[in-house]
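Supplementary notes for students who missed Thursday's class. We covered one full example, reproduced here. Read the sequence, then the structure, then the short commentary at the end.
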Amino acid sequence: MRQAGVLLHVTALPGPQQCGSFGQEAHDWISLLGRHGIKVWQVLPLAPVDGTGSPYSSPSGSALNPALLDRGRLASEGGSLHTEADQRDFARWQRRQRHWLQDHCRFVVLKQLHAGAAWWQWPRELAQRRRRALHQLDQQQAGALHNEAMLQWQLQRQWQALRRHASANGVQIVGDLPFYVAHDSADVWSHPALFSVTAGGRLLQQSGVPPDYFSHTGQLWGTPVYRWHHHWLTGFDWWIARLLRQLELYDLLRLDHFRALQAFWCVPGEAPTAEKGLWRLSPGWPLLGLLWQACLRRGLLLQGGRLPLIAEDLGVMTRGVEWLRDGFRLPGMKILQFAFDGEADNPYLPANFKGRHWVVYTGTHDNATTLGWWNQLDGESRQRIEQTLGCAVTAPGWQLSELALNSSADLAVVPLQDLLELGDEARFNTPGTASGNWSWRLHQPITSLEGPIKGYGELAARGRR
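Structure (token representation):
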């Protein structure tokens, strides 16, 4: 089915809190999409953010960001376990989430007790998870640990209420999962054998990508790469549990940096840039095969027996990555801002899409807004784009959106900034930079978006979406 969607992170929604939340504005946004036939809302990771505000290097790979809790709604509902039914629901939820919840709560409490210090700077018995030390923590901090667990449960309840509202309005929610987890995270602290760190927490090998479109020295991410042989020995239990947790939250899941499931760029832990790394193979085939079996048992497969995943396959892809993507029939991504380099065989040009099994974007959270991109182009590049469109460019965001909607791709997704024709003051992230990102927010009310979303819905309908 051909569909149209909008990319807008929850934190960018308007509202009375410091950032957007799972509150009324999110419900109103979903109602607006549903009213105008927009069937997909794509968000960024909902995990807690790192010190720069990025949700892609989270201190917890399975938790939800406490900043997204609608505290007004929570207060109006009582905010505590005031009925026996609530207590039973909470207890059942804790049991279902035991693979991550207990250690997440311990990690948060220990960070608070040690003034935010990284886990490898804690006392050795806690950093190395000595049984007696953890037992004492569980006893002495029982109240704080309970509160952290209940906070996650409250977040889950609000998010699932939003999911139900989306389903009732015919809107699917597409999530986003970072490939790696942060060095200073509950995941690495609780499962150090699965990551390339020493017993003392020192980073042995770290992740990144070689020099590319975004940076001539590559991108150095500072997150530990996986010790894949340890994952093999456990039957990929940690990965499968992590992916199933995400599929519990979303209808579809975009797997960021998908190419690392086939091979990953491995950089020495002390390296200052990503230039001196090596490609190493990953066990993507057996991992996705086991995930397929787990989804089959839980009834999570899409029509035709496909995994509910989108492969973020941007950049220079190898034949091996394409085989992995196509072997599991996963849709890849196309970015229209990459399409106009003057090469007739550019794979991002809609005329060169092979088939319809794609998700096409004008740009993503890592790109300039389309207006900002257009403003930076030289005259020759602009002329090429106008020749492709067959007309003068007067509204870059809308005209690229129409090109996406008219393409053969099954799903077209447009950032809200492009529908509002915003410039780079509304850019969400610039890769390779550590400040000024993740902070753009929509300050106008949801009701003011009626016109742009209505127009986008009409444009989608003309594109048979």
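Commentary. The CA atoms of residues 248 and 315 lie 29 Å apart. Residues 3-66+168-462 form a domain with the TIM Barrel fold (CATH 3.20.20.80). If anything here is unclear, bring it to office hours.
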